[in-house]
UniProtKB/TrEMBL annotation, chain A:
It comes from the Bacteria. Belongs to the amino acid-polyamine-organocation (APC) superfamily. Spore germination protein (SGP) (TC 2.A.3.9) family. This is Spore germination protein. The lineage of its organism: Bacteria, Bacillati, Bacillota, Bacilli, Bacillales. It comes from Melghirimyces algeriensis. It is a multi-pass membrane protein. The chain crosses the membrane at residues 12-33, 45-63, 94-114, 126-148, 160-177, 197-220, 232-256, 285-310, 322-339, 351-369.
TrEMBL record, chain B:
The lineage of its organism: Bacteria, Bacillati, Bacillota, Bacilli, Bacillales. InterPro entries: GerAC_N (IPR057336), Spore_GerAC-like (IPR008844), Spore_GerAC-like_C (IPR046953), Spore_GerAC_C_sf (IPR038501). It holds the Pfam family Spore_GerAC_N. Belongs to the GerABKC lipoprotein family. It comes from Melghirimyces algeriensis. GO terms for biological process: spore germination. This is Germination protein, Ger(X)C family. Residues 209-371 form the Spore germination GerAC-like C-terminal domain. Keywords: Germination, Lipoprotein, Membrane, Palmitate, Signal.
Amino acid sequence: MNKQNPEQDQPISLYQSHAVIVSTIIGVGVISMQRGIAKEVGPDGIWTILIGGLIVLVEIVLITRLMQKFPGKTLAQFSSELLSFGKKRWLGKVLSIPLLVGIGWYWLLTIAIVTRTFSEVAISAVFPQTPMEVFMITMLGSACFAAGQRPELIARFNEFLMPFLFIPGLLILTAWMEAGDWENLLPMFQVTDWKKFLQGMLTSAYSYSGYSVLFVYMAYYQQPKKAMRAHILATGTVIVGYWVTIAASISIFGPFELANLMWPTLDLIKQVEVPGQILSRLESAIIGIWVVAVFTTLVNMFGVLVDISLTTFNLEERFRKWLAWGSLPFGYLVANRPANLEQLFRWNDLAGIYEIVMTLVIILILSILTRLRADKKGDQNASSSA
Amino acid sequence: MHPLQRSLSIILLISLLVTGCWDAREIEERASVIALGVDDHPNGIEVSVQMPIPIKVVSSGGGGGGESGQNAVQLFSGQGKTMSDALEDIENQSNQRLFFGHARVIILSESVVRKGIGEFLDFLRREPEIRRRQWPMVVKGTAKDALKTSPKLTQIPMEYLVDMVEAGVRFGHFADVSLGDLFTDISNPAKEPILNYMEVKPYKIQWVGLALLKGDRLVKVLKRKESENLLRIRDEMVGETWDVPCGGDQGHLVIFPTKMKREIKVKQHKDVPKINIHLTLEGSVSEKICEKVELDHPGIYSKINRLASIFMEKRAQQLIQDIQKTGVDSFSIGNHIRAHHPDLWKRIDWKKVFPKADIRVIYHVNIRRIGLKAK
């Protein structure tokens, strides 16, 4: 396990790519997203979550298209290629650094936010006496172990853990059937305030954050040409999962109560009653499963952060582990920054919009450059053939 | 493995295993609260908790032994300005810290609910150990007295109360209001909460009706016979049996409802809407003490249907008038308007319109069967 042999690693399969997207996006957001959405748009959350998902789907399609043109290359590699002019390779390296730092900063920030949010939930819901540092360091530490592996291995790890994510989904459906009230979902589509609706749409879109990890993982795909369908399917899976979560929450609690709940999904699970009183307090079990969801998000984010640093500086494979452990303190420090929950939620929203914008900027710059290069090449070809 | 890595992984493994130690509380280290009671007190509020005595509570499979009633539990009371304050007062009396994970009942005294319960509901909302699925109820007199009752049917007194409420809800007689429902109803501007209303008797507690709340304050108490119509209109529950005078004759027929469907129709008349509530009930005759009515006469079913409907409509209409006087929409008609007629909801201020609204209840009773006796 310690001695990596890159040739032995199987490249990421289509199903694994599906797993990577699903388990990266489903993370801490799923436990609290309903509150913000209900506050802004009330019962219309069942629409904004779909629209927010579509926004993200468009971004994923754009990333996939771009990456398909550079099979086997990560963002660090092909951006520096695109940005170097003539023989000046160093120029490309230098020019690509703002892009890489921009997106890398997002990854680091998300690692911090995910770790912190997880600890906050665990403390406020089940472990009130446990110090927060313990959660954060354990979470980050174990994520580092996994993140020190090659992306192919991380993808396999995702493939193995993804099925666990469906267990809470089943419980949420049960709760919906048991306690749902259709009147709470009505009135449907009553947009009175378009500004708020737009805000609700954005809040919904933030809850899907994390898709930018494709900038790295797609470089290790076995069949990048066929990835589009798998990506759309994966995003679809997440959208359906989120829709069920939010529709069940609104239906059970109503839009007014939902705005009062700190961690609505936790209360949603608490609502489930298992007959026979075998498990009367399901939330501890669910937090256990939810650790998996959070952990895969963390590992994938950490993995890309490490991989992008590695490929940027052209380091040898053996440095991968040290990079992972080296970035742990930074993650920990940033995670400690938000003073309270209010700030943490603001950071979360800011990170969400930052990812959408940063990804778009990267896609735009690189797509235009690709087009220009292609034209130039076409010209050269034309002139050479003439 | 690299030695540094090995040591790191050992540290990590240990830290993974010890996570949660700070919160590890074995079952014998917990003082489990079964029921919470809240009363008025000159100093603020008085909170009483019922806790089972572990050594005296023996599982039924254990074969005899164990004590029941008040001998199996101990009552603790604490006073304070706030809920947390009062509970800390209790913790200063008990041997362990309180654990609310097993609490099933929250008993509120009538006088507390008249003053408003919002303040200490806040504590219940924040505390993660409190489950949303437990039964809040209002009790005539003090909650402490309710916790002191010693029914003999179950080992732990409050288990009896839980069983009673659960059975009542299952048969459609009691209001199905859990703590979570109470929170939800208070949050919803279109809804007003209701709670089950109990009375303490020696060795038992009796359900005597419903408490109607406006926000978090009690405004009216309904008696048993009034409650059934409210439950039918509000929650589509079947309700109790009812006696119908046999037209012109002495005596009564008893209708036992088994199935229930509610339909609310709203007609908009300028500003004051006209609301028709159709209640379609299926049922059977469970008792007949009239001499002249023979249940094997042709056409007798439709006659009974009409009699039963008219009788019940009158009673329901009376209830609606009474409740309209209080100005609190306990029927949740407001929520129906909010959900199904959003335009109307935005145009009118329902809280002001409700007392003036023209609300009709129309019963459609369908007698299906008459039991084992043919006549």
